[in-house]
# Entry
Amino acid sequence: MQQLEPLIARCRDLVEDLDLANVKAWKAAHPRGIAIGYLPIYAPREIVHAAGGLPVGVVGAGEELEIVRGDACFQSYICHLPRSVIELALTGRLDVLEGMIFPSTCDVIRNLSGIWKLSFPGKWTHYLDLPQNFEPEMGGVFYRRILHEMYAELCAMTGLAPDTECLRASVRLFNENRRLVGDLYAARAAEPWKFGAKDSYLVLRAGLVLPVEEHTTVLREYIQLCKARDVRPLDNARIALRGAFCEQPPLALIQTLERAGCYVVEDDFLPMLRWPSADVSEQGDPLDALVTSWLATPCEAASRFVKDGSEKGCTLVDSTREAKAEGVIFATPSFCDPALLDRPMLQAALQRSGIAFTSFKYAENTGQMQPIREQAGTFADSIKLWGEA
Amino acid sequence: MKPTIAKEPSMLRQKDMVAGHYHKLGTAQERGQKVAYTFVPGNLTELMLSFDLLPVYPEINALQNAMRKLSGDYIAEAERAGHSEDVCTYVKCDIGMMLKGNTGPTGEKMPPPDVLLLSYTGCFTFMKWFELLREKYRCPTAMLHVPYMPDGVITKESRDYVVKQLKDVIIPALEKSSGKKYDEERLREMLKLSAKAEDDLVTVLESAKHRPSPIDSYFGGVYYIGPLFTAFRGTQDAVDYYRELREEVEGRMARGEGPITPEGQVSDERFRLVVEGPPNWTHFREFWKMFHDEGAVVFASTYTKVGGLYDRGFRHDPDRPLESLAEYCLGCYTNLGLPRRVELISEYVRDYQADGFVINSVKSCDSFSSGQLVMLREIEKRTGLAGAFIETDLVDPRYFSPANVRTRLESYFQMLAQKREGALAR
# Structure
């Protein structure tokens, strides 16, 4: 087993490597393999894996990359993520990817799929229209056809024949990985002083570029190493963080929250690693199982329609309580329509439940942390004061 | 003295129709008529009307409020209530109107919805918008997921998916809200009327190929599409309106007259343009005048296709009622992938022999705006024409900077004139 610091350092290297060296290395070791990028917030990675591919999460370039050409593609009132994604592509950093999946997260990612088609006509570009109808005979039929076609197209690229057993094996691997991701969240909520929000984030985010088998090992080791740590708890406020499911905050922002006296015990970073929220069935037809899990998953997300009869925000309230968070911080990327349009409804749900919240906006390349530190610190202090009252 | 605004007779007719509709809405509750809120792109107006449901289009309320200079206050009200300054101003204008008592643009109180018919076509924000309204009105929402067409081609599978939802979700929801049974014969009759009106609209839009063009297909175009994109499709009123409009336009064409603008008739057609993107509504007349002053006439626009690409052959079909409603939803402009949008604009530039094209990028609408800078370069590449790019907003008066917009347009028109003179000199 590795030691904690080198493990985290390795994850950080993976996260900060915009040239995707490990993806290149994987391809060198798998000459018939393909690397397929996917944007937030969800893609069925099992399909890519079963077709002999490496699914690679593309969530922007953070603060590491100067945006030059990306700004020429998007107006100032569009969020930052697409401009850094296009910058990565136009500077050749995504050449290693044979294709890209654009999930139906919002209009910006949807239109980015069109930009991709216009700009990289030789690349496999797939717009993944996740169903908003959750009935098996409607949304289910529609989604299964999409998955079936996607699997066939990816297999055609690798030369593998679509194979049920192979797909089931992939489902098994990703189930295991998601269970460990769940374990990490649970362990952090139980003893946040041992894990740390930034380090946990790095370990999770490494899963966007690592093969699933390897990431599962990393998660297992990380959880064990952290649990064994001898760290004294601080009198921090336990907070849940919401709004950062697509464009990711800079690492400095997560660190700032910790330094401001917050233990992040729940968040919505990287939902692609946590969805579906329950195991995909390992029995029967795996495509059917993937469809069923997506339709039935209780995950509440800004880009997923909340049916009549379900109270908007109840998942947030439940997960906040389950993680024993004392308040919620809405950290939302500027110009993120899904998160910002959702926010008033989520805040209303928190208000009804008597849960405190605060909110601010960021961009993936935000550099000025002082105002965030002050706001988060004040929020943490007020939670502590209310708690004592 | 108040300046006289030139108006066509069909405009006056439409004004009466719209006022009549708002009056019906204002009295719906006392008359016991049920109301459905829905959106313009991919609207199912005939289906709603076949249940005697009175449609409300929140984005139409928003733009009507903007034209009446009411939207700024409504947006401020919504922002005070916690809505972000970054998001769609149509939504905030609507929420603000609701928070301030829900008085509609004509001064009559808007009825609450009996059902929110969420035809989720071409715009992510629609989904959030009706989730927000559902929180306030606590009424049922009927969700129709209309798949996006990234390649611009309607697939059988997508159509089947929409038809199945119409049958199993939407129609039962409308039956429940209206208390009436689905009547397919009635729907067919309405679709027959729709197709008639659609034929006349296409004749009107294509009259712009004539020189001089008798119409402006962007600023004037928003009036021409009004009844067909909203509450009147499938009615005899719409058929009568479009017949009158067609005759009016044909008359102008026969007389060699240019389009009517609020400033008067365009008599010197200097620039033929295609425009992409919705107009600004808060300064609509001022914006139009900037084109009029330069003799710039718009021959084709994409905004007039958000409610259907009739000029590309689509018609509602009484013989395939639900299938054609599904195809209508799937084929609306903003539901088409960027490559198809680029192709369409390039076709317009060629078919209408345009001198140039303008993209009006609105802050509020990611569905339209995201990717427009890439589209600009691609269209320039394909057509060999330089395009202009201006930025405004839909209904937020804070984002219309007249000096900036005018300067950009004037520079663009100067460039077109110089190019033309250069070509003549050669």
Q: What stands out?
A: Chain B has a mean pLDDT of 95. Chain B touches chain A through 52 residues (CB under 8 Å).
